[in-house]
């Protein structure tokens, strides 16, 4: 952070405060009405399903069967939330989503850290330290982003088995890192490419090496892209069901296994209110991270907007 | 504290029983209320032997659960026991030597004498060795009718498929969907197979599904079945639901006249507090040919290295066929027991009809026991397309059906 | 241009190479190895388990190196009893292309892909440009537009399945307002079902695209805007001819994210329609998965995935190599 602040000249702080387009003169100019009107409508479209989820999760089942999905609840009940969290059953285990919550956290943290660490170093090497053959591997990696996960289930079972990691947390973390790698590497590579050449050259002249430049110059300037990468990974890993359930054992199953059970209960009555409550509960962690990182995002952009 | 409690409990049980305790992880895809209650019966009985049932339920049906089970088994980290449907789903795992041979236990306990119908045990047998324990029988051949819907339409509740078809216009006139049908592919092909068994008889069904006879499948008798399926398609044209239980719900609420669905639909009627005979009517074999198929579930036991666990596997296997376990499990599950020698007086009317048919021996194997999942999958694809696209004629569909049957394995 | 002064080439390369080891391993072992494995087994009649290939050189009529031919990591260790001549040539492919369902899957993917690609770009960029106008409540708007991305596809599908349900969703609301003839049931109409899926897909994914675009827009030098204003260039022209070309790297990233998401679309379809009505909303990834696990025909599933890999390879490899290889960054 220190070097970022040092590197940021006063002028570079402008994007945060300075206007993008022409400065708005009046509060109700036609332009403002257009912008806020459009954004308002768009926000409505994006917010509507959330509204439906919240409203439904607060209704009782009889009300759901009768009413329409948009109607607010006549009688508010928190029972679906309690049930989703603590009493919904997966087979014989009736402790709801709470069962898998800490497992999800245990999977999430190392997976996010490892995948972002690997990808950022990769991206940095590709952007600033090009070596022979790098492009080939990178191309393969990008093509890998297009392979459906399902196709890879068997080969990865074999690879993990041969490595002796099948069924372990380490194995799952590796799988998440591997599948996160293509897009994250691309993200970091492109970002580091856009960092001004001069900074890199100056550091080289000062005698900084590969890791020195990475930790002292690149890292502090890359907050926005780390935030984007984090958003991608947290969401992907937290919501993952397939890998979590295939490559680990029941005592490591993530929360999504319970969510899947609650939502996908094939036989029996569908409890839509519990479904929605479970959905919202499962989404809370990524949502909270978005909320926190939203601010970081803007700050990061201010710090990272150093442009030659 | 909790751990100490468990430990003490386990120690006490160990002391009580001569056998050593082992933890067995059991995977299955029974996650709805009734299903979980049924599994709990197994778990209770197993825990009473001093061992511990570790539940590994995976929701979403076999399609979601099977890849997980297969990956675990081939990945070298198998569970101790796992559910599959009766039939050929686990065939290759057995062939690959990954499943435990239960023949000794089966011989010692005389499974060959108690399992009825014997075709269930045949499905578990490969090269003379037994590899699984059948636990229940689910049959497909039921027509569920809403008494309310027919009362609203002012016609008598049908007693056969033809009467049902004849009543369709009256239902439609009142805005009632004659036939409720979900959109999932297994429901479409299931309904067609029911029509085939019920309208054209068991022999034809066995020629098509058992012998894979493409000429019969292309013949006139099957053409009649396709004509009936065409009727069914028209009757179900306005049924826009996805899951089978949503379709059942249309029948329960009287929005639809009837539904062709397996005996598991009964659980839905029970949950809704409906009574067989007064609120709804069940017609086995569509009221034409009272024949039921004997699909269902079986448990397989992967080969384990641990000796204690292997011993416990044996205990679990024999326990699943014990009379009282069978009764308790099947009453909760809504399915029929796999042994004919037990008393099921607590069963309701529809279930009793099923037991009678079973006792009379009017049974056929389930398609799962006769064809590979691959061929059945193609048949599923064909019928889900047929039932949802009115532009496909019965003749076209029959030609494609015959081709799949001819190539089936 | 990057570091093109190369005083100590060997040492520098060494460091970068060490850093790139995970990438190289992933690329070679997982992506190349896994894909090759898939392609090879697509020529077999594998059902539930991959059948071991005993005589590789016999199958392919070419000599195979010792390390592949022996029972290595590429093969499943299945007792020899059940394995024999498992090679079936192109049978799986003939069956694949004769399958109605596969053809429909591809058509759906093409429609979904084209619409999703264009609309994601346009919507994402326009929203980012609007948020970039130094507006109030930017945080609020951004959060609202981004939050759907936090939800899994399973959940997205479920919610939209609900909202689009004719019985109690949008259609019934509009009818309730007096428009009795109003029909909006995309998920129950064979002809437009794929657009119903598109609505949900865009809802879930455009927030991220917008964020990427916003990050790109914020990276544009303020001086460029000033210069454009001084020259009296209208704003839309500035965007179109100056800003967008400058955002090329962001667009490339976005393109890869959107396109890879399109090829892999699976959960959303399963959650919303399970491929229905009929088979009218099937997609290739679902074909692959269903054949591998539901129908227990690995060979067929692998043949389908090989076709997907091939299509990706034909389109992506030349492009990716031009984009990322060949020349220096730009």
Secondary structure topology:
The complex is a heterotrimer of chains A (308), B (409) and C (330).
Chain A (H helix, E strand, L loop, with lengths): L1 H6 L6 H4 L12 H28 L3 H6 L12 H9 L10 H31 L5 H11 L8 H11 L5 H26 L2 H9 L4 H9 L4 H16 L3 H5 L8 H10 L7 H33 L4
Helix pairs in contact in A: 3-15, 5-15, 6-9, 6-12, 6-14, 7-9, 9-12, 12-15, 14-15
Chain B lengths: L1 H15 L6 E6 L4 H15 L4 E6 L3 H14 L6 E5 L5 H5 L7 H7 L1 H4 L4 H5 L1 E2 L2 E2 L1 E3 L7 E5 H7 L7 H13 L3 E4 L4 H16 L1 H9 L3 H4 L2 H16 L8 H9 L3 E5 L4 H7 L8 E5 L7 E2 L3 E4 L6 H13 L3 H11 L15 H11 L3 E2 L2 H4 L2 H16 L5 H14 L2
Parallel strand pairs in B: 1-2, 1-3, 8-9, 11-13
Antiparallel strand pairs in B: 3-12, 4-5, 6-12, 7-9, 7-10
Helix pairs in contact in B: 2-17, 8-9, 10-11, 10-13, 10-20, 13-21, 20-21
Chain C lengths: L8 H11 L1 H21 L14 H5 L5 H4 L21 H8 L1 H32 L6 H9 L6 H11 L6 H7 L16 H26 L3 H9 L4 H12 L1 H16 L3 H6 L11 H11 L3 H27 L6
Helix pairs in contact in C: 2-16, 5-16, 6-10, 6-13, 7-10, 8-10, 10-13, 15-16
Overview of the molecule:
The complex is a heterotrimer of chains A (308), B (409) and C (330). With 308 residues, chain A is mainly α. Chain A has one domain (2-18, 82-304): MetI-like (MetI-like fold), CATH 1.10.3720. Chain A is 69% helix and 0% strand. Chain A has 15 helices and no strands. Chain A has helices at 2-7, 14-17, 30-57, 61-66, 79-87, 98-128, 134-144, 153-163, 169-194, 197-205, 210-218, 223-238, 242-246, 255-264, 272-304. Chain A starts with a helix and ends with a helix. By secondary structure, chain B is α/β, with parallel strands linked by helices. Chain B has two domains: 21-138 and 295-359, Periplasmic binding protein-like II (D-Maltodextrin-Binding Protein, domain 2, 3-Layer(aba) Sandwich), CATH 3.40.190.10; 142-293 and 371-407, Periplasmic binding protein-like II (D-Maltodextrin-Binding Protein, domain 2). Helix content of chain B is 53%, strand content 12%. Chain B has 21 helices and 13 strands. Chain B has helices at 2-16, 33-47, 61-74, 91-95, 103-109, 111-114, 119-123, 147-153, 161-173, 185-200, 202-210, 214-217, 220-235, 244-252, 265-271, 307-319, 323-333, 349-359, 367-370, 373-388, 394-407; strands at residues 23-28, 52-57, 81-85, 125-126, 129-130, 132-134, 142-146, 177-180, 256-260, 280-284, 292-293, 297-300, 363-364. In chain B, β4 (125-126) and β5 (129-130) form a beta hairpin. In chain B, α8 (147-153) crosses α9. Chain C is an all-alpha fold. Chain C has two domains: 9-93, no CATH class; 94-324, MetI-like (MetI-like fold). Chain C has 16 helices and no strands.
